[in-house]
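Issue 218. Parser rejects a valid record. Input:
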Amino acid sequence: MNARLPVPVDVRLMNLTASLLITALVLGCIATGLWWAMRHPAFAFGRITVDGDTAHHSAASLRASVLPRLQGNFFTMDLGAAQAAFQSAPWVRRAMVQREFPDRLHVTLQEHVPVAYWGEGDNQMINRQGEIFEAGDAELDDEHMPTLIGPDGQAAEVLAMHGQLEPLLAPLDMRLAELALLARGNWRAELSQGAVIELGYGPPRELVARLAQFVGTVGEVAARHQRPVEAIEAADLRHVGGYALRLRGVSTVRVEQPAPAPARPAARR
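Output the parser choked on:
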């Protein structure tokens, strides 16, 4: 049996050197290929497709406004930066950006769905998620959209309160044209026919109870003074057990709720 002779040191060094050179050559070729690919015009984005919500943007106008801000080709573009560029456009809430080999960029948009104006101006709106966004110069078809006002960071709270109070006005055939969260937590509402309602402060259940009590009795109170509910100018619901009411042509009326009947003593056996 022949014993295998050890490989001389110089041969091993030559083999190692050759392996290293071959590895370096392969890596160099790969790097050169990548460098070529990243800069070759064939991989520059030749088409950008935009779909999803485009009610306030045409695909062409959006591409024209965002394209100058996009940098790189199929391999080098920063998709996070591209997403931010599309989301900076008015009305765009989210943008999903994907590469499509070899030279396409596919963008899917989700637009804000406005439910109310925010603040005193007409440029800021609130979407269904309670987020504030800039509307730009776009015009809306919904002339009945309410205005909500409140401190920074509390848009979602004001929107949620509006959602609880608005349905209560259905028996009066009115709606909330404006709802404001003022200093110290006081709430004020303006109805669609112009009446101003002082709701006061407190947890939502208390505000709901005050407005429900008002809606359930104000028609009868107005009728006593021979006025329709449309004649309401203002109401202050911050009084304990009742509210102050002002009707057109009638002095302020204080409406007290009847006190609960005393409990009857239990019969003795």
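Fixed in the parser; the record now loads. The chain has two domains: 43-111, 114-256.
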